[in-house]
UniProtKB/TrEMBL annotation:
This is phosphodiesterase I. Belongs to the FAN1 family. Keywords: Hydrolase, Magnesium, Manganese, Metal-binding, Nuclease. Its EC number is 3.1.4.1. It catalyses: Hydrolytically removes 5'-nucleotides successively from the 3'-hydroxy termini of 3'-hydroxy-terminated oligonucleotides.
Length: 548
């Protein structure tokens, strides 16, 4: 249920909550301007504090006072005057031409610069380009627009507030709206008890490394050449796994960029220096693309001796025979995947709106054997509900603010090992039958709470009940074990459909492929795993009937 917020200063209270949280848990990591801000902010008049937070929460750094009209604040210019001595906000800031264009409408631009009729009809970007040579200087807003009854404000302290947001959330992806969505009841989060010592950052160096990496990533995503970005990358941070993981991921993307540009030398150099999953496989591939078959084969043999994951093992099985053929080696026969049932359908193309999985679902469904489109949702839900206590156990460093959808180390290689006792206790319920009550109880008690394994809108009690009645506990245990083996890779790839025969207490998973579709690598791995362990899985190939 969505709640109505009665406190008109809810956003200010939430901002202060963040400051208090940081002061209590991170004081030893703060630099002087951050500590001074936290101390000075509460002493300002409430309208001034509220205006500042409104500006922090909005996009950009420049605002027209007329656009900051909030009933609970009153006059924004008067509120801003109390902020001026802090240096956090500027009234009537000095602006360049591009900044001025951010604040002015097209009619205002025409008025300020006395544009001709032809110029008035141009696009705003064209107007800016035509005026730029004659207006290269910077001036206060009031000097640009002398008769304007409005004024402008600039928030200067936004980077500082972004740092504080980073310290609180442990990332720059989450923002101040998390509080509002939680207060409104739109998002609900599991309440994990964690100590004051549980922190996302353990040193100031961690914070600085994160910010440096974030800046490099923004430059890369903005189109800057990796040649100028790579020298600015911070060194590896082996003492902080999740920050180091962000660095390796950026390196991997840079390697992919070079590979797409056919700059195989640079791509290989980046890949071999990168520890992100899949980098070694790409290094082999770019050596092959570059015609360095012997070097590629040598790296292949090294990888085959100790594959980093099922995904790499699959990649090596694909590339190995090709390299061997190019080098004239004796051909070896790779292991054949376990066979899955094959269903071939040839159906008339339905009229109106349709989707391939829905067509197959409706065709295969029987009163005594209903079919559901579940893809990854059902298996992940059963795992997440059974292992809820283990997933949200208060492991040091896994949770450090109230808005975690998942543990911070969810994708770490040691995610299971750090909680082995808790997960083993959950999986043991599959051996003695308690799992059904646990899953059903958590489905009711935790309904709507954010979880990395639950898509609540795709689930209902009837589906959960059918799954528990028809899927053997031994099969559920196999699914859970494989998910825990590599959470990031194995949460996806499950077949699209599941069919239940309640009277026979059995089921069948069905992956659907329409004309021209092919199985993806993660789907192939799950199908092979299920078939190998005698779990009923089928691949349905759909073709459309040809009109005579």
């Amino acid at each position: 249920m969505i709640r109505i917020l009665e406190n008109e200063f809810y956003y200010l209270d939430n901002f202060q909550r963040v400051l208090d949280w940081i002061a209590l848990r991170y004081d030893d990591l703060l630099v002087e301007d951050e500590r001074a801000f936290i101390a000075a902010f509460p002493a300002l008049p409430r309208p001034a504090r509220a205006l500042f937070v409104r500006m922090v929460m909005r996009k950009g750094e420049l605002f027209r006072a007329s656009k900051l009209n909030y009933a609970e604040i009153g006059c924004p210019v008067e509120a801003a005057r109390h902020l001026l001595p802090t240096g956090w906000v500027e009234l009537d800031p000095v602006l360049g031409l591009e900044e001025l264009f951010e604040l002015l409408s097209k009619p205002e631009i025409a008025l300020v610069f006395q544009l001709t009729m032809h110029q008035k009809g141009a696009r705003k970007a064209e107007q800016l380009a035509s005026l730029r040579p004659d207006f290269a200087d910077s001036r206060p807003f009031s000097a640009w627009y002398r008769d304007c009854p409005d004024t402008a404000l600039r928030i200067v302290a936004k980077p500082l507030c972004d740092r504080l947001r980073l310290i609180f959330f442990g990332n720059l992806r989450q923002d101040w709206t998390e509080f509002v969505l939680s207060d409104l009841g739109i998002y609900r989060f599991e309440q994990v008890e964690f100590s004051q010592a549980s922190r996302g950052f353990r040193s100031r160096r961690d914070i600085d490394l994160y910010l440096q990496l974030h800046a490099c990533r923004e430059r890369f995503e903005g189109g800057e050449s990796p040649d100028t970005i790579v020298p600015d990358l911070p060194p590896a941070a082996p003492d902080n796994e999740w920050i180091d993981g962000r660095r390796e991921k950026l390196l991997f993307k840079i390697g992919q960029h070079y590979e797409k540009q056919h700059d195989f030398g640079r791509a290989h150099a980046v890949y071999v220096a990168c520890r992100f999953p899949g980098a070694r496989g790409r290094a082999i591939r770019v050596l092959e693309k570059d015609g360095q078959y012997a070097e590629a084969h040598a790296l292949l043999l090294k990888a085959q001796a100790a594959p980093e994951s099922d995904a790499e093992r699959q990649h090596l099985l694909r590339i190995g025979p090709r390299l061997a053929r190019k080098l004239g080696h004796v051909r070896t026969r790779p292991r054949r995947a376990a066979p899955a049932e094959r269903i071939d359908l040839c159906l008339p193309m339905p009229p109106g709106d349709w989707w391939v999985e829905g067509v197959v679902r409706d065709h295969l469904a029987r009163t005594e054997a209903p079919v559901f489109y579940v893809e990854n949702a059902l298996a992940n839900a059963l795992f997440g509900l059974l292992c809820w206590r283990a997933i949200f156990s208060a492991i040091p460093g896994a949770f450090f603010h109230p808005f975690h959808r998942a543990p911070a180390d969810l994708h770490s290689p040691d995610f299971y090992q750090r909680r082995a006792r808790e997960f083993d206790a959950c999986l043991a319920e599959l051996d003695d039958g308690r799992y059904r009550d646990t899953i059903c109880r958590h489905f009711v008690e935790k309904a709507g709470i954010q979880s990395p394994f639950l898509l609540w809108d795709y689930l209902d009690e009837a589906l959960i009940g059918l799954a528990l009645a028809c899927i053997p506990a031994a099969h559920l245990k196999r699914w859970c074990e494989r998910i825990l083996h590599d959470v990031k890779a194995n949460r996806s790839g499950f077949p699209d459909l599941i069919q239940f025969w309640p009277s026979e207490r059995r089921y069948r998973m069905i992956e659907v492929k329409g004309p021209g579709d092919r199985l993806q690598d993660n789907q192939l791995r799950w199908i092979d795993y299920c078939a190998t362990h005698q779990m009923p899985v089928a691949v349905c190939y759909l073709q459309w009937e040809q009109n005579a």
